[in-house]
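Lab notes, practical 5.
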Amino acid sequence: MRVAIIQSNYIPWKGYFDIIRDVDTFVFLDDVQFTVRDWRSRNRVKTKDGLKWLTVPVGADTSRLIHEVAIADDRWQRQHWRIIEQNYAKAPYFSHYRELFEEFYCGRTWTNLSEMNQYLTRRIANECLGITTAFRDSCEFTVEGRKLDRLLDLVRQAGATTYLSGPSARDYIDDARFEQAGIALEYKDYSGYPEYPQMHPPFEHAVSILDLLFNVGPDAPYYLWGWREGAHR
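Output from the prediction step:
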């Protein structure tokens, strides 16, 4: 049983979905401290004037857990949709996904950041990328300890025999602790993604998954993992 555990992100980048597809169970780690100016509440899109941040207005209070972060004002939803529409309307596959994203931004009002992020991530994974990974929320578990002890407890409770971590976690993960617990530890490698036909050059990898979907449509899985597995477009 391969498991990955990561905080929910707002319209995540392509690597986030690549790691989801690599595991049997993906756990949203949303019962940890919220961090400001981070991927939890913002991401980037390409525009003719360069990269642009789309930020969900949730305030700068860091005394909240991610799943406690409320969204008080919904005006940002139509603003974000307008920016996306203005900059991607001429992309080859914008119309292919328009209904899904227009409904997300204009068809309902979001009041909780975690709920919103998880909802859209699941829909993109399942409906746009064909990912069959099971999703869970860390709030479902009763976890003990702090920091690495807490992570290990959550990994065990999720039933992992292998834990797939993001590469930045090397700074604080003690590989020996996982070995002692009988859990194989692997680190995701985000390098080597091929470039795809992208509007508004120069090419940029670190943008929302929306960019990949709107530009290549059903070929998106090739640019995420297919190239690595020798698949043909």
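Observations recorded by the TA: Strands lie at 2-6, 25-28, 42-47, 50-55, 134-137, 162-165, 184-187. Helices lie at 14-21, 75-88, 94-106, 113-128, 147-157, 175-180, 209-216, 220-226.
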